[in-house]
Amino acid sequence: MSHRKLVGRSAYGLPAVILLAVATSGHTFAASSQQQGQNAPLVIESEGSFAFAGKVETDATGQSRHCDHGYADFSLPVGARKVPIVMWHSTSVKTWTSDPPFLGGHQNFQDIFLRRKWPVYIIDLPRQGRANYGCFALDYVSNWPQVGRDQRTFAGAVAWRLGTWVPPGPPTFFNPSQFPDDPTGALLDQTLRARYPDNEQLPDAFPLEADSVSKLLEQIGASILFTHSGSGYPGWLTAIKSPKVLSVVSFEPGYLWPEGEVPPGQTRVVPLADFLKLTKIPIEIIIGDRYPAASLAIAKAFVDTVNKHGGNAKLIYLPDLGMFGNSHIMMMEKNNVQVADVVSQFLNENGLDKH
Amino acid sequence: MSHRKLVGRSAYGLPAVILLAVATSGHTFAASSQQQGQNAPLVIESEGSFAFAGKVETDATGQSRHCDHGYADFSLPVGARKVPIVMWHSTSVKTWTSDPPFLGGHQNFQDIFLRRKWPVYIIDLPRQGRANYGCFALDYVSNWPQVGRDQRTFAGAVAWRLGTWVPPGPPTFFNPSQFPDDPTGALLDQTLRARYPDNEQLPDAFPLEADSVSKLLEQIGASILFTHSGSGYPGWLTAIKSPKVLSVVSFEPGYLWPEGEVPPGQTRVVPLADFLKLTKIPIEIIIGDRYPAASLAIAKAFVDTVNKHGGNAKLIYLPDLGMFGNSHIMMMEKNNVQVADVVSQFLNENGLDKH
Fold first, then answer.
1. Which range has the worst mean pLDDT, A98-102, A196-200, A295-299?
2. Cβ–Cβ of B24/A39 closer than 8 Å?
3. Chain B residues with CB inside 8 Å of A133's CB?
4. What tens digit of pLDDT does each residue of B197-214 get?
């Protein structure tokens, strides 16, 4: 029986080999401890992709087109927890996905949370990425990647805060930095390509996104939203619109405010009755190192406003936990397993991680 | 020892439980027979995504942008075969990926070949899908989804040949049809959304694609290309350009021809010396049911031309194998496991499926 020591015990006290055999007949089971490990194989029950929401437009003769849908990748691990996580990027799904072995194999949130047995959905919103078959001709001409985008991404205080970059000098990372070790510069090259042309120039972009994700949750069931940066604001709109948003974990998002309680400089306002819906769900905001003080104050004001109205919002400033050197893309950085631990603890405290 | 009977034996005669433990220390192993089954869990060593190829454009001051890269999803199964498969779509990666459980869970080629232990890469080419951060402002305005696209996709003889659709009447599938059972119409809705705005209107599109995939193969190693329809032609260009294309399996592609041997109506021509590179690799062309006779004659002419010059090209017309009712998207249809069997046999016959 020495092999039992190698694989440990499942939650049911059965050796994993028996449970794998059960899984092949269509049942799920609690994973062995080794399968939950950082380098254990991913054991996936099903995966794939689908379009969600979207319109069908028809002319007078009945000729039609399907457009303005979103696109979701799904991965459902064997032995999954009940509530899925929907990962909603700001610039590209690459912020959630792992690196290939030839680039060091650094693991990102899709796989970290899959290994922790969460069903994971990664989405492109309408008119973005794999969902760029829109009903409108986006003005990509004036919204195209411009020279200088690299420097603004790398160094901007309101961008990714990786370091300083003043051409013709090279990019210089902050010290300390949690950006993964990158001796050849290949990972920085990847990071600067982790971007799509933006879809936000049309006035209906944010309501369209909130409506689309609400429809997605009608299909996949009540879920936790992970939002980031530019997806923060439409994420709050979705939580207001859909009772199927059970929680929002947001990484350095933008905010919205109830009428009459808007901090100076903030422009996104909703009726108090809408804002109060955000007080019904657990919210966690995660902020990295070197976040501008004024922005940190706004984050604190948002959490205070939610809680003042009876909510359950929590602000995590990573340096307060002894985590230094994180940029705006902390879900892609060296210590992202520890960042994920912070999130996992929050989900556990709020009873959202049940099998 | 009864559990050993449940899991079968690996190729090394060890129970799978031992091999799983080995895998956690970083080694790979041959899968147990049950893991290769159609409904067994996918056991993935690593997965994720990355940008490939691409340009960096810099102005006189040193300000820069990264653009015109491709985007690849990778999935490396535990116990993988040596040579990866690169799946290169024509309209959307959805043609390769499986459906979610709430849409019936139909499995497509990504998972069928992963379960058969192939490393699988699925790519978006520059200026498409998740790689639409191009160096040029694509003219999406004139290349936008037009009303009537649905009918042309569904019914066109040079499109997907799913059936007939004359508005205001409903779409009617051919009989027989291999399109998956779709009582609610949800799968047809998915299929009509499996499309991006095209990237082919700029004159450098095809050479750019061939160059990009050649660079991808420099990173991931010599590979088999699966191409489909519109990706057929740039796929041949890639096989001419890169010695790392070990084989091409192409589903109803377009073709190119050596100078002086161009059939009437065909326009894509390369020097004979280039064309001869296609004679150095095994090629399989797969054609579905109801393919127009003139198009089938062109496919046969291509295979004959390759073979006349000493090549190893094979034409599979699925009805000749007793497989009726397949459309242009046979990799997504009910009998796609049988279509995959045809491909697997070809790869085996050519010694490409070694572990």
1. A196-200
2. yes
3. 145, 193, 195-197
4. 877 777 889 999 999 999
pLDDT top residue among B311 and A134: B311
Give Dmax (Cα) for chain B. Answer: 72
* B 21-60: CB under 8 A from A: 21, 23-24, 26, 34-35, 37, 39-51, 54, 56-59
The 10s digit of each residue's pLDDT in B54-83 is: 999 999 999 999 999 999 999 999 999 999
- Residue B60 CA to residue B195 CA, distance in Å, equals 38
Q: In the prediction, which pLDDT does B200 show?
A: 73
Longest dimension (CA), chain A: 73
CA of B302 vs chain A CAs: smallest distance (Å) = 33
Interior angle at CA B291, CA B286 and CA B294, nearest 5: 105
Q: Residue A24: which residues within 8 A CB-CB, separation 6 or more?
A: B34, B35, B37, B39, B40, B41
130-189 of B, contacting A, C-beta below 8 A: 130, 132-138, 140-141, 144-151, 167-169, 189
Please tell me which residue, B4 or A256, carries the higher pLDDT value. Answer: A256
* B196 part of contact set with chain A, CB < 8 Å: yes
pLDDT > 90? residue B97: yes
Verify whether the Cβ–Cβ distance A64 to B167 is below 8 Å.
Answer: yes
Q: How far apart are CA A21 and CA B30, in angstroms?
A: 17
Question: What is the pLDDT averaged over residues A112-138?
Answer: 93
- Does residue B98 belong to the interface with chain A, where contact is any CB pair within 8 Å? yes
Cβ of B137 within 8 Å of Cβ of A137? The answer is no
Window 61-90 of A: residues touching B by CB (8 A cutoff) are: 61-67, 69, 71, 73-74, 76, 78
What value does the mean pLDDT take over residues A323-327?
Answer: 98
d(CA B80, CA B120) in angstroms, rounded, equals: 10
Q: Contact B214/B242 with Cβ under 8 angstroms?
A: yes
Fold of B45-349: Rossmann fold (3.40.50)
Residues of chain A numbered 306-345 and touching chain B (CB < 8 Å): none
In CATH terms, A44-349 corresponds, of 3.40.50.1820, 3.40.50.720, 3.40.120.10, 3.40.50.261, to: 3.40.50.1820
Distance (Å) from the C-alpha of residue A334 to the closest C-alpha of chain B?
A: 16
Q: Do A51 and B76 touch (CB under 8 A)?
A: no
Contact at 8 Å (CB) between B129 and B92?
Answer: yes
Give the chain A residue nearest B218 (alpha carbons).
Answer: A102
Q: List pLDDT tens digits, range A142-197.
A: 566 789 999 999 997 778 999 999 999 999 999 999 999 999 999 999 999 999 88
Is the distance from CB of B339 to CB of B323 less than 8 angstroms? yes
A39 pLDDT band, cuts 50/70/90, is confident
Provide the whole-model pTM.
0.90
**Which residues in B lie closer than 8 A to residue A74 (C-beta atoms)?**
100
* Domains in chain B: boundaries: 1-36, 45-349
Residue with tokens 């999935």: B75
